[in-house]
Amino acid sequence: MKNYRVGIIGATGMVGQRFATLLENHPWFHVTALAASERSAGKKYGELMAGRWLMKTPLPAAMADMVLLDASKDIEKMKELVDFVFCAVNMPKNEIKALEEAYAKAEIPVVSNNSANRGADDVPMIVPELNAGHIAVIEAQRKRLGTRRGFIAVKSNCSLQSYVPALHPLKDRFGLKKVLACTYQAISGAGKTFETFPDIVDNVIPYIGGEEEKSELEPLKIWGHVENGHIVNAESPAITTQCLRVPVSDGHTAAVFASFEKKPEIEEIKKIWAEFKGPAQELALPSAPKQFLHYFEEADRPQPKLDRDLEGGMAVSIGRLRPDSQYDIKFVCLSHNTLRGAAGGAVLMAELLAAKGYMD
Q1: What is the CA 130 to chain-centroid distance, rounded?
Q2: Do 182 and 176 meet the contact criterion of CB atoms below 8 Å apart?
Q3: Residue 158 is a catalytic residue
Q4: 319: which of 95, 150, 235, 274 lies 20 to 30 Å off by Cα?
């Protein structure tokens, strides 16, 4: 596999830092440029991040002396330095949309962690195990943008990564009709630590702005299909969600209830989960978990503290599958929100795009 030069836009934030750690020893991708806001530009990454580094592993030594570029003003410079970029900026949505389009129009493919372009029907929102086929829509997007290489691909909301993968292999086989999901989301999803978020200690906050809308709509895009250069959202299942912020550092948990046209047997579901593979596993992508869905028989699993780092934080943990009195089944799911849910999911998507030739 060819080596690619990559940039991280928004390198100073929590997800940007996570990108830096994931790409430090990546077999295909090598970080050659870092960019952030105007106030960070011109400073060395190591010096700027002193006292601000939030990862458990040290700041990558090879990036410490890199001088940060201005994400908005230095696009032409970035073009000389990189083959594509990861984007994880903290800006108003309309500004992110404009920034990502500017990079794409400069013929720099953008793999985005941001939600600004998720609604566009020619921007693929990919979970590599679930809807890899949606990358075909990139050709239509390039026509719209007037580009040869440049495009935008986005990662879905972090909370979906726990429960949508578990429902996916059951959806068509049994006719998934309706879903109720309550998510219990870690503070790193808000870019916070316990030191910077004292309000969460000994507390639960029952509101995360915009999260419930995303959780109800985005699965329908993932489960949609490409038609005439557009992604047409799925019409079902009906999804309702509640999203709560809980005092956990990393790992989003979901309590899920589901009903089907044809009710599956409990042991049948476990077998389907155990055998489920997607293109990420078939292509043996570097960041792909070998076993995507792990089922725990213990009554008190999965737990963020014990299970979030399973398979490098890229697997989904499931437990407590049982019949329900209102729905057909219920279960609990867990995924690491800044790995599978954010930076890791974006790196895996970039690997898929590279393997399919979209970065060349």
Answers
A1: 13
A2: no
A3: yes
A4: 235
Where do the domains of the chain lie? 4-157+343-355, 160-336
* Identity at 359, one-letter amino acid code: M
Q: Which architecture characterizes domain 4-157+343-355 according to CATH?
A: 3-Layer(aba) Sandwich (3.40)
Q: Which architecture, in CATH terms, is 160-336? A: 2-Layer Sandwich (3.30)
**ω into residue 289 within 30 of 0, thus cis?**
no
Give me the mean pLDDT over the 48-65 stretch: 96
Q: Is the pTM of this model over 0.85?
A: yes
Q: Is 168 a catalytic residue?
A: no
Tell me the C-alpha distance between 18 and 22, whole Å.
Answer: 6
Task: Say what the alpha-carbon torsion angle 40, 42, 43, 45 is, to the nearest 10 degrees.
Answer: 80
User: Of 87, 158, 243, 333, which residue is the catalytic one?
Assistant: 158
Can you say whether residue 296 is alpha, beta or left, with left for phi > 0 and alpha for psi between -120 and 50 degrees? beta
Percent of the chain with pLDDT over 70: 100
What does 7-66 look like in DSSP terms, one character per residue?
Answer: EEETTTSHHHHHHHHHHTT-SSEEEEEEEE-TTTTTSBHHHHTTTT--SSSPPPHHHHTP
For 206-243, how does the pLDDT look when each residue is reduced to its tens digit (9 = 90+)? 999 999 999 999 999 999 999 999 999 999 999 999 99
Select which of 134, 168, 252, 294 is catalytic: 252
Range 140-164 average pLDDT: 95
**What is the distance, to the nearest Å, from the Cα of residue 52 to the centroid of all Cα atoms in its chain?**
23
- CA dist 242 and 215 (Å) reads 9
Phi-psi group of 71: left, alpha or beta (phi > 0 → left; psi -120 to 50 → alpha; rest → beta): alpha
- Segment 344-355 shows an average pLDDT of 97
pLDDT of residue 2: 78
CA distance 4 to 360: 9
pLDDT tops 70 at residue 1: no
Block residue for tokens 């978020």: 197
